[in-house]
């Protein structure tokens, strides 16, 4: 639909045309009917809107005549004349009214309205109206320019008139009301252009396009298709169709030249009218005048169908156009029309006679054969005034030699035949007879509507029943339209497009000619590059010698690809689908963006998934897959999580809510593919898995992780549809704490990533370490993915504790771990610390690499133990970017990173050398997560199939509603799956009752290779059994090193540290306290019971102490009474009694009151017998005394 502003402008221009004596009227006055008129016949008039001339400098002027447009008019007139001569419509002749629009859309609209004065109230004196009493309008041919066609269709949409265009190729014309296009849309032509570029191995191009519908839409289609093929448009310029400022054109060309790579070329695609291409060549000419001609030689042009194979543009600018590649519709030369053309122009008298009804034939005659007609009014104007010979001198041989059939000549012939056949059917329908006429035929509106409806359904085959047909068309060619779009259906019996190269030819290459070098047939380009030539620095160059690529690093191109690949996917077709997410790239600097390709746990995981999927679908199904329905295939949608929870969540949400349309290899996937998704596989990191689970839980979708180990994900109340084939991290941390206890490491540091994985591990470690009396000196956080100032901060904090905290636990993914160790290596000595890595890092070769030096030597790595897959390893090591199909783009990125190379078509050539096929992956180890990806894929396939059979049909081939509504039951089916492992050959369960994995952990030590101390190797030093909660660790096997690579013992303790309490708990007490139970809940209950018992015993002791104090007070009171009695006795003449206060050391003996010898305590005083009156009796124990036997009595020395 036209915009309001455009409609207003169109009306203004039409009104303007009505009020002025313009060129259009001059031409139109002589164009009533160009076919002979017979008043005894009824005439079906066909209005023709043809741009016989190019446009001029303004709307009042026309430019030079175009030979190819005139040839279209000649072919139309020739076809209708044949029909009339053979009385094909028996009583009806076909006439034409021709309007030269000169390429102006306003003129096309005005004259279209003139054809239907009774409908659109055009002035009574309007030229070229169908005003014969015995004539009616049968349809409109043209316009030939896309923009004019769009406007005419809008103007006549209520008329019912069929509009048949021969060369309007813009995509927007498809579906316009009453418009039929007898050529393919530009989407097809652009495919040819992109295929040519691909064959030339160009990765970068510039585009210049015209400021009209044809150019703008063509550019948008080029941009779309180029990105799909990884072709970058480094510059794009829109120019007017004609009469641009030369300085502006030259600047555009200079800017384009500036992007040329060293010793390379720049491919330039021109997409516009022939006049637009001429403007481009004018700009190049201006560049040459600035002494930059040597650079302009490096511009290689691809020209569209508007230039085709016979445009004057190529001839007029041959030194600039040489080497150009042109695209044209398929041309099958019609010999009968050629004879007509040659007969006409080899006879100057015939030309003179025809000029009475054809105002352009003499102008064409002079221009085509560079001759003059002395009586022609344009004889004094350019270029005719430079021609020296008279047109009477032109020979038949010269006309034959110069004949070149224009690109859309056949389309015009098909239009003429279509209108004739449709009119024949309409007469039968309206007049109820196969010949003659009836009055109903003169009802324009009814006839036009009938014509349109018939053409929508028409199917024409060239047969002997037709009185006219070119011999080549007989029983071969067919005409049929798409009833919805109005586009002609491609004729598969012939190619759709041809490719030509404008080359030097003739004697010593002094001339130029177009040589056919390729054809585009039924969606495939067949091109011969050996025939093509470019011309650089005045020399002939093989097209394969130079390519149009980025100079070094094209930021513009990289950004284009990043924008295109916002959500790239790999699509594997299947009856049911698994949607799988893998971290092919690291997280970008901004939210939702991706960074560099991951060199670990990324592309290899994608390959593992594709491998497992191929195993599942391999026919005939055997082994563990034998019960999967034979006719059911399992496909996939694979997406890149970029190790980001935000990106993971956004992808799942936008896809399942249909906000994002998935595209794969340039094709938009049908919306129903999402309804085929049976389960989600992913992610690797716990943060991504949790982000996905937050969405999948709400959707009721089964999700299985192949690498997320956070204990949080074990919560089945919060995540009822989540499962995983890996062991949760609480088991790993228990093993780490036991490792500390066994090595007597009581003072350690922690470095963890800010991801869910790293944060959960660190919190769990600190919790268990506190209970085991292990002090954490510092806990530092680093970023996941790209490094920043956090790395240095963590390094400095750890170095501050280096005198005591010698052991550092690195709880991070592989990439972050290596990045941090590199930071450490560059700023600290090796041998200071012993690093313990979590299972995400495990035994990756990166820890042994030269970039880390010896910083990781002596480290310990936890590795989740699983079954290797030797078949995958064999296949993986054979893969190269040159033998892959499905995952080629991501794999190429990974390959570039691995071998530090770049491909010739790379937008970033920072690699040290060009990647070549001699590079192999020999010795490359796949990531440790690969087996889990394969296990998870197999388990999902088997479990989903089992659930389908339970809830759908016995032999299901697609999802059913009952399956979708029972995700918990589906999970139960998956949990019961058993897989056969290579080492044992036994069927083994891979899930526990909660849907978690149950793999044990191996503990590996990075040591010097005793056979070659220059190398390092991993040696297994222990194992942690998940089922038994038990660590088996060999202190003699593990080796630790100082900075000189000497073996040392690692002591990581701090007896006097302000941040840690003194440890008074024995190692045995630690072991009994922490590991008497296999999980944390029993452990917490045991601690609580111990605390309660301690409190009870304390209360009992307090009660006993209070009772003892009371008893002693009573004894003291009685003692005082006895002492008073003794003094009284002394006063009465008894024996002397020494003063207690002065003789206590002799009088009183120290008496044990702790009952340490097993006797009862004696609470009181015992006076020595020699110092008392012998008559006195020894005091006997009373009710308040205990027994005195066994009391320790010490006598004083004399």
TrEMBL record:
Q: Which parts of the sequence are annotated with region: Disordered?
A: 1149-1198
Molecular function (GO) terms for this protein are:
G protein-coupled receptor activity
InterPro entries named among the record's database cross-references: ANF_lig-bd_rcpt (IPR001828), GPCR_3 (IPR000337), mGluR (IPR050726), Peripla_BP_I (IPR028082)
Q: Which UniProt keywords apply?
A: Glycoprotein, Membrane, Receptor, Transmembrane, Transmembrane helix
Q: Where is the Receptor ligand binding region domain?
A: 74-468, 607-1007
Spans through the membrane? 1087-1110
From which domain of life does this come?
A: Eukaryota
Keyword Glycoprotein attributed: yes
Where is the secretion signal located?
none
- Quote the subcellular location field of this record: Membrane
One Gene Ontology cellular component term attached to this UniProt record is: membrane
State whether keyword Transmembrane helix applies. Answer: yes
Q: How does it sit in the membrane?
A: Multi-pass membrane protein
One Pfam match, given by its short name, reads: ANF_receptor
Q: Where is composition skewed (Low complexity) in this entry?
A: 1169-1179
Q: What is this protein called?
A: Receptor ligand binding region domain-containing protein
Which taxonomic lineage does the organism of this UniProt entry have?
A: Eukaryota, Metazoa, Spiralia, Lophotrochozoa, Annelida
